[in-house]
Amino acid sequence: MEPGREGVDASTSVGTGDLFDASTDATAVLSADGVLVGWTRAAEALLGYRAPEVVGRSAGRLLAMPEDSARAVGIADRCRAGMGWSGLIPVRHRDGHSIDIDLRVSAAFRIGGKECFLLSAREQRRQWTVGQSVLDGFLTRSPVGMAVMDLELRYVWLNDTLERFGGVPRDQRLGHRLSELLPGLQAETIEGLMRKVLVTGEPVTDYEYLGWSWADPHRRHAYSTSFFPLVDGADSITGVCYMVQDVTERWTTRQLLSLVNEAGTSVGRTLDVMRTAQELADFAVPRFADFVVVDLLEHVLSTEGHGAWLSDAGPAPARPAMRRAGLRSVREGCPEAVAQVGEEVDFLPPPSDANLLVDGDPVLIPVVDPSDGLWVAEQPERAARIREFGIHSLICAPMRARHTALGLTTFARSLNPVPFGPDDVLLAQELVARAAVCVDNARRYTREHTAAVTLQRSLLPHALTGGTALEVASSYLPADPTGGVGGDWFDVIPLSGARVGLVVGDVVGHGISAAASMGRLRTAVQTLAAMEMAPDDLLARLDDLVLRLSDEEAGRDAATRSTATFVGATCLYAVYDPVTRRCTMARAGHPPPVVVVPDGHAYFPEIPAGPPLGLGGMAFEVTEIELAENSLVGLYTNGLIEGADQDVESGMARLGAVLARTGTDLGILCTSAVQELVPTPQPDDIALLLARAHALSEDQVAQWEVPADPAAVGHARAEATRRLADWGLEELTMTTELIVSELVTNAIRYADPPIRLRLLRDTRLTCEVADASSTAPRMRHARSMDEGGRGLFLVAQLAHHWGARHTAEGKIIWAEQEIP
């Protein structure tokens, strides 16, 4: 055989998959005497001969060269030895032209006593080759910048694209290092990467960086660069090749999206107009601008009016009254500003008028000329500051939300030499639009909150909810319909762990003074309840508050003394747990609640009365009862049971009889009970709060005991994940795993066993971790270099609400998540 003919030819371009896939090969069967005895359609397609034309005839006429007949004899001998053969061989097509085929011959086998060989062939396609001139042109004119550096990191070769990127001619680059030519392109860092490639032989791909170049010295560009070693025939590294692309547009787009997303979490964190405006200024400097001012219209900062003149009530005034609400600069003290926060301003970019705020588009001034006549005539002081601090580019974006003009935000650049462009206008518009919604929300909240605070001191709540734990209904009748609200009050307070707090109270007196006192107490109870206090502790704190307020009022002189001095108040506070169906309650001189069991029997639990609020020095006691499913609990004030005869016991009996009507809608029952029991005339306020108890089912609660071992954290997390899957709450798996990990880890690390993990599926998903320690948790704000201290901070970010409450056995730390 000829050299290079035996085995698979080295010049073939057949892939690995093709070598093993013979499904499309031309196949024939050849007898030992050279006669074809089998011929397939694939063979016909390859050589053009139909089966009748070749079967039974010698295969020698298919060979392209006579000398190949001798080779065929050698191949036959090799195959008789059971070795098989493969290689390239020329054959003749039916139309006369020669074809190189990749031929494979099997070991000899017998058909009917005749020795035969199986032939399999496919056409050998030539490899495509590139001429040197074509390759040189491709490398030189490639849209990707390319260069070759020697072992000293000096330029040996570069293409036209790289020369254009850097702005340094080719003849000035050759023989020099990058750090000698383009120091603004992080040259030392890039050369460090190239040295790493020379040492390790491992390529570095897609390294992105920012820098300046002589080609565009006034604009920073982003580049993506890859480095790989050049290796000679002896596998020695002879240099480094790098390829670079200008990805400024991609980088800018990514940065803009990142800024917009980040702004969503940094701006509008409070419902305060001024703070929101300042957050916008703080966020944009220095990320986007060197100097930012946020000016809001006066009506936005006022608690009255709605700014309709800017929406639909005719043309706006030429110079609208605005007030500076946000201010930030890269320079300490904001020396560029002509007005400070809180001061009146009327700035509009020349030649704009107030219509810019109503329906105008953002104004882009890429190059500010302070010597322009409009600036000098309309804004002389600002023109001087612009000239003094080198402010060279401006964007003025009107702030609007819900068809209402709110103000104007101005972005300026001075230290940053790059002027604003159209893309920057889009970003500024998006930032201002998001902030505008937050400002408008804060504006609306401020007005509504002001009205709500006034109403809360004189009116009772109109809507109450007990979640799924309690079905609630309420009714209130003032003593004198024309004399305003008195001092009777009630509330339903959602608590952690699906629990609900019920409260009812009575302040002596009527009118504004009693309503103001009632508002203070109601607010105090809500605050103390949110601190997860037990009923007796809550009443003790409330008693201290009443004493303090009374002393404060008594210490005033006669001229400033209010008529709202506390002369007496009573209160009853109860907490219902739908998991255990236990209701814990305590009272301060208030009538006991009425309980109606599902069969209609009514009774009044025996709860120690306790002293009225404001006496001080006496303790309150807690009573706990178990409520069956659908039990009814009624909290009321004494005006409902005293009646005309002032017989409290008879009044309580009448109330129990009225509420014993089972199967009645709770709202109807509440209203009818008040109507039936109200005395005539009505000497006092009447309040009634009804709550029908429900329990969480067993499949809504999951609980596990956790060993005080760090290895148990993973098991607790896995158990929680499985339970979420059972509940169909897979969307909360990731956040719940993090919350469980942090809370259980903290309990194991800092608390005492036993440790218990509990999940509750109610209107929200609640995760609770109980331990035997009474130490209250404290959320830390870890510094950037601290290794720990972020656990509760992370829980606070992931959860809708979180907190801790003390129990007789220790404490419980809980976190609630909204269920999608």
* Number of domain modules: 5
The largest pleated sheet is described as: 6 strands, antiparallel
Question: Which CATH class of the largest domain is shown?
Answer: Alpha Beta
Cα-based radius of gyration, to the nearest Å: 43 Å
**Average pLDDT:** 81
How would you describe this protein?
The protein is α+β, with helices and mostly antiparallel strands. The chain folds into 5 domains: 16-123, 2-Layer Sandwich (Beta-Lactamase), CATH 3.30.450; 137-246, Beta-Lactamase (2-Layer Sandwich), CATH 3.30.450; 264-449, Beta-Lactamase; 460-693, Phosphatase 2c, domain 1 (4-Layer Sandwich); 700-818, Histidine kinase-like ATPase, C-terminal domain (Heat Shock Protein 90), CATH 3.30.565.10. It contains 24 helices and 32 strands. Strands 1, 2, 3, 4, 5 and 6 form a 6-stranded antiparallel beta sheet that branches. Helix 10 runs parallel beside helix 16, helix 17 packs across helix 18 (535-554) and helix 20 (648-659) packs antiparallel against helix 21 (666-677). The two termini are 76 Å apart. Residues 1-20 and 306-314 have low confidence and may be disordered.
